[in-house]
Amino acid sequence: MIQKRWKSLFISIDFITASIAWAIFFFYRKIYVENVPFETSERFFLGMIMIPIFWLSLYFFLGTYNNMRRMYFMRVLSISMIAFVLGTLSIFFFLILDDEIPSHTFYYNLLIALFTFHSVATLTPRIIVTYFIVKQIRQKKDGFRTLLIGGSSKAVDIYKEVEGLPKGIGNQFIGFINLNGIDNDISNLLTHLGHSDDLEKIIDEHNVEEVIIALDSSEQERLKNLIARIQGRDIKIKINANMYDLLSGSVKMTNIFGAVLIEVNDEIMPFWQFVIKRLIDIAASIVAITILLPVYIVLAVMVKSSSKGPIFFLQERIGKNGIPFNIIKFRTMVVDAEKSGPQLSSTNDSRITKIGKFMRKVRLDEIPQFWNVIVGEMSLVGPRPERQFFIDKIAEVEPQFLQLTKVKPGITSWGQVKFGYAENVDEMLQRMKYDLLYLKNMSIALDLKILLYTVVIVFKGTGK
């Protein structure tokens, strides 16, 4: 709720300041460049609305309004300057460059004026608002619900160190969970919420926003497993600084308030790429559904005539951040195929219909999932979504599998392209390696490559 209020305030201020800056620039251009009387017109008032909308779109595209409560001065300054440069150049080239002016040198004046008026008008209130956000954190009036993992003396030391800082670093401890034994001191300081075996349940019940892991340097494997279990959720993970050399992966120093902890950096790709990825998802899915409508009709008739039962098959799968959703497929199996419980299909599975075998080979059973993409439950490219039953089974063997829920699942994936359908847990683990590789190297370029490979598989009919 606090996050939404700060976001709404930032957006409102940005709209107002962009409108004011444009009005000042318009006045400057008429009086000092064009040397004509300033008069309001329909174009002036239209600019007062459309120009701020353009700026807000650019700010959103660059991730300005993400995690407003985690704002700090350098982040505000860096994001703002990038936006100001890109936005000023865009407006200049599309709206100003064709203006009739006495000399080309006036273009430089207009460019500098546009940048100056907008940046000063926008950055000043942003710095003021950020000051109050930071002040709330430093005075410990606001913070992030933090779970401490560990019940040893190390956990006590971390708690006392964080709480003893003269300025808050954003952690509001709600309690701790133990791994083995419990130190008497930690019980006197924090509420015991349970054991690490119930980590996921405790995180959900207490709306945890950050986790601090307090482990001894000899427990590297346990550290990796804990991080793997948490990284599938929208939660910040911090560890004590002397464990830096133990963590396999990307880490960074917590940069908001000079914290003494190291933050696990699970940023997969820049926010602007996620925006582009989402736009591609929506546009491509709408086009695909439109073009494939005759194919949908033909397949619907074939599915209906091949065996008794519905045309579409809906099944609950686990999506981004562990949120369940119903995946849509053309039915390729007989009705009640899983009356004995969850099962994976195999190459010669008797439950698969004749038309179902064909559709699976060329991936046509998956095309209804373009609807899942449009409504935001899936992406075109991403790790294939699994059922909770199999996620639990795989996580027992390899907890890193849970990292795959950090992003939206996809209609196709690197694992699907390289390995195909998995027939058992062992094969799911092999496919997981490709999907983890995708996760660590995620980009728009890689998505396009995977989509290209998928199209080749469809036309060749070589899918497993």
Number of domains: 3
Rg result = 27 Å
Read across the widest sheet, the strand sequence of neighbours is: 3-2-1-4-5-7-6
Strand content: 5-15%
The ordered H/E elements are: HHHHEHEHEHEHEEEHHEEHHEHEHHH
Largest sheet: 7 strands, mixed
Give the structural class. Answer: alpha/beta
Helix content class: 40-55%
How far apart are the first and last residues' alpha carbons, in Å? 47 Å
Number of helices: 16
Shape: flat
Stretches with pLDDT under 50, minimum 5 residues: 243-251, 254-259
Mean pLDDT: 84
**How many strand elements?**
11
What is this structure, in a nutshell?
With 464 residues, the protein is of the alpha/beta class. The protein is built from 16 helices and eleven strands.
